[in-house]
Amino acid sequence: MTPPRRQRRSLGHEPPPPPGPAGQGEEKHPERLYVVAGAGEDGARAAVDLVTLIVARTEPPPSATPEQVALLRLCTAPLSVAELSAYLDLPFSATTALITELLAAGLVQARAPIVRRAVPDRHFLEAVMHGLQRL
Prior knowledge:
Elements: H1 30-37, E1 53-56, H2 66-74, E2 79-80, H3 81-88, H4 92-105, E3 108-111, H5 122-134
Antiparallel strand pairs: 1-2, 1-3
């Protein structure tokens, strides 16, 4: 693979190059995010973080927006907010606004993630060991 070649800057006044397609991480349509997130009644958001699991309770209603329908269809199985944000190609803040609306309507349920312990409890292992020794 060859490295990219640099172009020399000219000293003359040339028009700037035409803008290219939006790159990774750039907001393509900031007005769309406002429409998706909505103005909100009081601006309050649900207390969810990136690892909170979201599960749909019902099918999407006919009055749901396309983003809400997509979110509800994705959440037939538990998904984290981070995964939903990636699948919907929306920032975390807009995804949180959608989830807040759906939680208020009772269409989704938020669950804390399941925390697994790396090391089993010592008392539990001792109880198992003593139970096996009695056999």
